[in-house]
Every structure is written in structure tokens, then in C-alpha cells.
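Below is our example:

___
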Amino acid sequence: MFEINPFAALSVSISPAVMQGFVVLMALLVAAGTLFDVVHKGSARYFFDNFRKKKGRPVGGGELVSIAVKTAVVDVLASGEFCNPRRRIAHLLGMYGFVIHVVATVVLVFDLSAGSPWPQLWWLGGLMVLVGGYWFWFFIRVDVAAEGNSPFRVMRADLFILSLLASVTLGLLWAYLQSMLLFGLYVIATTVLFGSVPWSKFAHMFFKPAAAFEKRVSRADGTVENLPTLTRDDPAQQQRHSMELLRDAPMDMGLGIKREAPRHY
């Protein structure tokens, strides 16, 4: 099972051209949805205007390259923005699993004769998504772990993770059971996943690297997004704090909230 291209057997009943056309359509939906999201929310204009309005010290080209490399390695590849190690591991499993699963899907659909290691990577990527996704959904989500809500409570913000889990789960079940009913549900869930970009959190995977890069640049040029830094001994930095009572407070004040996990609600 793990060594066979599941789409090769499907080609007996569905034309390979139809399967390849569906993959291309999903890619176009992601591109169109992301562009619509950028225009509708004005995110690109925000980052451009923010860069143009900066009045900090000039940041040279070499330093910008260094910042870009750090952003790619720390914030993107290692998900360094997550302080919670459990959430970081779950995110990395989902992120790398999704990339592996999608790339393997494209290879297997466009080359039905593709053998090892692509079928194994397809299964491995899908299982990584399921482990990271279900772990996050049932045990790590803030409204479940901290606020005590039911893990079956669904909101619009959950569209991406739920459609992703539905697509991968149904895809693996179809490949295992070879049920055309499951394949039909797999196609529907996949269409929802890639077609709902403007209404889900799918596009945030493209925006987060830009936001992380902009944040690092703001620290380098001294503007720091007009927020207080970790050096309150500087009078200019003290005045940045929005709460007057905390301008002279010690740096470790308020960190007691991190002493225990929020599991007593």
C-alpha cells in the first residue's frame, strides 16, 4: 500500500488529464484567493506604507540580507515565533507535513509511474498533518486548553484547519479503502481548502514571513513599531510604554503568568 501510487489506480476510472487539471485549478484558486485577500485587506499597501514612513536609522543592504536570512531560518523554517514548545512542534508537523503531502501529490498525479520515495512521502506528509493538526485541535487551542471550551466548538476562523484535516484524512482513507465515495468527499474537502483562501487563514502563511521580516527591520532601525523595548533604563524607551505605572517597573514584572499552564479553568 505504501509503495503504490494511489492515483495510478484511479486513472482507470478518471482520466489523468482531469486529475491534472484539478491540481492546476487548485493552484490557480490559491493564487487568485491570495491576490484577492491582499487587495481586499490592503496588507501589501500596509507593509509598503509602513516601510515608507519609517524614520529610524538607515539599514544597509547587507544588513537587510542578514535579516532576511534570519527571518527565513528562525521565523519561517523553525517557527521561532511560538514560545510554547508543544504548539511549535504541532505547527512544524502540520507545516512540513502539508508541504511534503502537496509536493508528493503533484508528482504522483503528473507522473503516474512515479515510484519510491513519492508514495511513501505522500503517506508520511499526510500522517504528519494529522498528528500535528489533531493534536492542536483537541489539546493545544487556546479556547480549549485555556478557556475550557469544547473542542467541537467551530468558528469561521477554524475553516482552514478543519478543511485541511478533512482533506488529508479523507485522502488517506480513500487510498487505504479505495472507496469512490471517500474519494468524492476528498475532492470536496480539497476544493473547500484551496478555494476558501479569502475567507480562511490559508493566506497567512504568505503574510507571516513578511510581517516577521518587517518586525526585525523595525528593531534594527530603532523604530520598534512604536512599542517599548526591553531597555527601560533609557528615558526615551520608558516613554514608549502605554501604561504610566509600568514605565519604571522591573523587567520580570508580570511574568508570573508563565509559571503554570492554564489548565485550571
